[in-house]
Amino acid sequence: MTSSTTTSAIESDIDLFSTEALHDPVPSYRTLRDLGPVVHMTEHDLYGLFRYDQVRAALVDWEGFSSAQGIAMNPTANEMSDGSLLSMDPPRHRAVRKVLDDALRPKYVRQVAGNIEHLADELVDDLMRRETFDGVTDFAAKLPVDIVMDLIGFPRDEQRDKILVWALGAFNYFGPPGERQLSTFPDVQALMQYLVTDATPDKLLPDSFGQIVWQAADRGEITENEALMTMSAYACAGLDTTIAGVASTLWLLAQNPDEWTAIRQDPKLVPGAFLEGVRLETPIQHFSRVTTEDKEIEGVTIPEGARVLVSYAAANRDERHYPEPDRFRADRNPADTVGFGFGVHNCPGRTLASMEAHALFGALAKRASTIELTGEPIRTPNNITRGLDTLPVRIS
Ligand code: HEM
Fold first, then answer.
1. With 0-12 CB in 10 A as exposed, 13-18 as middle and 19+ as buried, what is 108?
2. Cβ–ligand 1 contact at 92 (below 6 Å)
3. How many angstroms separate the alpha carbon of residue 225 from the centre of ligand 1?
4. Is 210 touching ligand 1 by the criterion CB < 6 Å?
5. In what helix (H) or strand (E) does residue 7 lie, and over which residues does it extend?
6. Which InterPro entries match (predicted)?
7. Angle, nearest 10°, between helix axes 240-255 and 257-265?
8. CATH superfamily for domain 7-395
9. pLDDT tens, residue by residue, 232-252
């Protein structure tokens, strides 16, 4: 609730979704953090949270900052995501989330860990022979495509290759109204069509996450629509995010050779180095929530019913929380990064994604003494995700 001493949020016309800002968002994040604890972004009528403490507090306060009206930044995407656990509050969220947690629990995921490490070793052996390669398609995308798609249970047909592109389109579609958002509607349609006609329970691979989801629907624990939307969440949240996180970490390591040397000397630093990559580049930059009452944050009011952009990416570079926030430090180990979210919607795939990354960078640390860029990386701007299309590298 508000008190008589509250003020309105400071306004800013910074457009975080312009092509320029999507290519280089860090200066805007700094400006927005410094403006105040809450900023009203007039371009898209969004209230924004950019500081670490405020972002984390809002993610914990699911009653005040609700996901139930969707977490995208336009009404059509929010209507379409009805039934997705990303767009639910407890208690319904708890029931659907339990199905996912059952599938993604560390004990179950660890059963495939040996496989993941073996594939990572083979992959890096091959890359050592080649020396130059693309850090995105040849390194970061391999395990999500070869292992995670099997875990989710997507049939091994030619449609599979298109899931990554459709999922990136779906993330773009989550942005504020505009050309970049509208142009990707065909990808959203294609993904939903695929889930309805190709990734059906009879075609999903046996013993997969997908089967677990549909069995829960058969038992009546979740609805058919919730099962379908959970499959959509797997496709969107589980693949491009990990690829972006691994490719970005590789990019940062290539730019910080001393940190790579430190990791090679002490491979126990590998998990923390991946967290540094997720912190600095934040594969999912922001989602949004809606306030269920007037909220006061450090004397500034956000009115009831406002759409609030919660920026994991800006929070992850907040100097109020992380000293020298823009520096990659292999020994920082930022386990409290909000790059995997926080609170009831925190990422259930964190263990799986980390396992893939640790296997890849662990295998690399055993073999490659140097990682160098051989050209400029290419990035297609996306409203929600931050990743790379190509990353030309050489290892020796
Ligand atoms: C580096 C890799 C990853 C990153 C950075 C990431 C990031 C996130 C973030 C920020 C959220 C919070 C959403 C919110 O606050 O509303 C989230 C939720 C989620 N993630 Fe991940 N994720 C990753 C990997 C994965 C993987 C591998 C899977 C599954 C195979 C997955 C499945 C999900 C699902 C289903 C949710 C929704 C949870 C809920 O609403 O309760 N993610 N992820």
1. middle
2. no
3. 20
4. no
5. strand 7-8
6. Cyt_P450, Cyt_P450_B, Cyt_P450_CS, Cyt_P450_sf
7. 100
8. Cytochrome P450 (1.10.630.10)
9. 999 999 999 999 999 999 999
Q: pLDDT (tens digit, 9 = 90+) per residue, 188-223?
A: 999 999 999 999 999 999 988 999 999 999 999 999
Check the CA dihedral 191-67-304-282 and report its sign. Answer: negative
Question: Is the backbone of residue 328 left (phi > 0), alpha (psi -120 to 50) or beta?
Answer: beta
Mutation test of ligand 1: which of 94, 241, 384 has the most ligand atoms closer than 8 Å to its C-beta?
241
Nearest to 262 by CA among 361, 187, 121, 162: 361
- 341 Cβ inside 6 Å of ligand 1: yes
The protein residue whose alpha carbon is closest to atom 37 in ligand 1 is 86
Domain boundaries, the chain: 7-395
Ramachandran region, residue 229 (left: φ > 0; alpha: ψ -120 to 50; beta: rest): alpha
Query: Looking at this protein, which amino acid is placed at residue 3?
Result: S
Q: Is 95 in the pocket of ligand 1 (CB under 6 A)?
A: no
Asked whether 251 and 361 are in contact (CB, 8 A), the reply is no
Task: Determine whether the shortest distance from the Cβ of 312 to ligand 1 is under 6 A.
Answer: yes
